[in-house]
Amino acid sequence: MSSARLVPVLPCPEPEAIAFAPSSGCGHSLEDPQIARISPTTHEHLRIAARHLRASRLVAFPTETVYGLGANTLDPVATAKVYALKGRPSDNPLIVHVSSLRMLRSLIPESETISDLYLALIDAFWPGPLTLLFPARNPPRPPPAPQTIGIRLPSHPLARALITEANLPISAPSANSSGRPSPTEAAHVFADLGRKGAEPVIDAEGKVVDEVGMLGCILDAGPCAVGVESTVVDGTQWSAEAARPRVLKVLRPGGVGVEEIENVVAALDEKLGFTGAQKTSVWVYGRDPPAASSRTTASPTMVHSPIPQRQSCVSSSTPAEIHNPTTPGMKYKHYSPSIPVYLLYPTDRFPTNPLQDQTATAPAKLEQVWRHVADQLVAARLDGAIAEGDASSKSGCSRKRLRFGVMAFDNSSLRHALKFTTHAVSPAQRIQVQDVENDTEIETEIKTLGCTEEDAARALFRDMLAFEGTFGVATDEAAASRLRQASSSAGVDAILIEACLEKGVGLAVMERVNKAVGGGGTGKGLGVRDVQEAQKRFWVDVSP
Ligand code: TXA
Ligand code: MG
């Protein structure tokens, strides 16, 4: 059995009280900012974290997007631990977090100058949730592995202060086991990695090389403000001078909306006097590239849902990644809770059927949807795909009783259709649906996605994890044990999420939701096999 030791959680309250001062001199304000004000406790905790980083250990820390699992970028022993602790595929590169442009320049070739395009994006979005690809100074692996390095300067004051204090670039993926929803609170990290991260590190000969474990500490500064990961863009081929077409590829949608990026790009084109074919095209993951001469504005399009994409306007010899720019990480199953996830498109927000490949073109009434989901869960159960008494199937998924967790917007018609009134915004409201045909009682628990796409982004991973029956704050073994007991009664049998428009951060929300729906679960015999093949997206008639 593993040791009962747990990774320490170090509180760093009121991160907004941390202040930064631009370095003296007349350069860019992000050239080399220093910590100007920080509370003594937080500073002490950052020193501890920095010592762990220098000792080749990992540190979990908050960013404005999600919590990151950080390692010293310059230390291959440390970065290898990131892959080991997460169970991350080795071909998926890590984003490097910097605290200054000086640090950024130390990571890219000395001959490389930061392009006008990147300077405009940095001015608009840094510090913040935008990752830029640069040519790498020392590519870690030969081609076809990426010869680029993804870098961002996060806006979370604690993240910036940690990098500044350690004076090291920090490579950090989201601080979760590979494939799981990303953590937006320290407690999520603790529940996932708090035990595993404290197991002594053992070398090939079985000798203990580090008593402390791979993960030195978790810095806790409360929930993340954005809630989904950064937007990853590739402008490495863009040049102000060269005659070749100017392209910025959005590889992964995230915290910075595509529309915001397009506005910055349009302003830059205008400033530089680019017209017609000289203008920069913004290509977006899951969307065809627009013709070079006519940039289209971002219209809400489905990223993963099985909608026939617009006819391509590029020649068939265009490489696949040009049609569908993406990161290595996007091909992996991601964001999946351990229970099936369903997506609901209410007819008032999606007046035409967004699910064009589905045979049924008529929208389904909510009762039909509930019955359909119940049938799938019960069928999967009878097939043995969902084991009776499965730890994650809290109600036992019996014919008699099912529990659905619904994530819906505050004022939505879907919520009204659930007989839920707008003014009663308690975080969880239970309703009972009697499914006569199935002889099943369905208990529905509702959590709010708030009112906007930004609210939904903050709620998404947190509430997926909560519906799974995971997590409160557990900073010691006793609390962890209490939580394990509590979670055995808290989970639901299926999560149903109301779709949002793919605008702003909504594009990232829908990309994450569609991944969770498609994946169906991360294993553990949870009905994944059968339910993932079944219809899991519904166009819902919410007319009264
Ligand atoms: O907001 C975020 O980006 C969070 C926080 C912790 O900063 N980090 C994060 O890391 O989401 P991760 O590892 O979960 O996702 C990184 C994504 C992956 O899809 C990866 O393939 C892509 O960025 N990526 C990283 N370096 C890349 C490169 N050189 N070329 C192409 N894609 C890259
Ligand atoms: Mg991740």
Description:
The protein is an alpha/beta fold. The chain has 14 helices and 22 strands. The chain has helices at 40-54, 76-86, 101-105, 116-125, 157-166, 186-193, 258-271, 320-323, 366-382, 413-417, 453-467, 477-487, 506-519, 528-531; strands spanning 9-11, 19-21, 34-37, 58-62, 67-72, 96-97, 130-135, 148-152, 170-171, 201-202, 208-210, 215-220, 231-234, 246-252, 280-284, 341-346, 364-365, 401-408, 429-435, 440-448, 494-498, 537-541. The strands form 4 sheets. It has an 11-stranded mixed sheet with strand order 1-12-4-5-9-6-8-7-13-14-15, with helices on both faces. Helix 1 (40-54) crosses helix 5, helix 4 (116-125) packs across helix 7 (258-271) and helix 11 (453-467) packs parallel to helix 13 (506-519). The structure holds threonylcarbamoyladenylate (TXA) and magnesium ion. Residues 173-174, 182 line the site of magnesium ion.
Which tags fit this structure?
single chain; 544 residues; alpha/beta; eleven-stranded mixed sheet; seven-stranded mixed sheet; 26% helix; globular; binds threonylcarbamoyladenylate; binds magnesium ion; nucleotidyltransferase
Structure, briefly:
The chain has helices spanning 40-54, 76-86, 101-105, 116-125, 157-166, 186-193, 258-271, 320-323, 366-382, 413-417, 453-467, 477-487, 506-519, 528-531; strands spanning 9-11, 19-21, 34-37, 58-62, 67-72, 96-97, 130-135, 148-152, 170-171, 201-202, 208-210, 215-220, 231-234, 246-252, 280-284, 341-346, 364-365, 401-408, 429-435, 440-448, 494-498, 537-541.
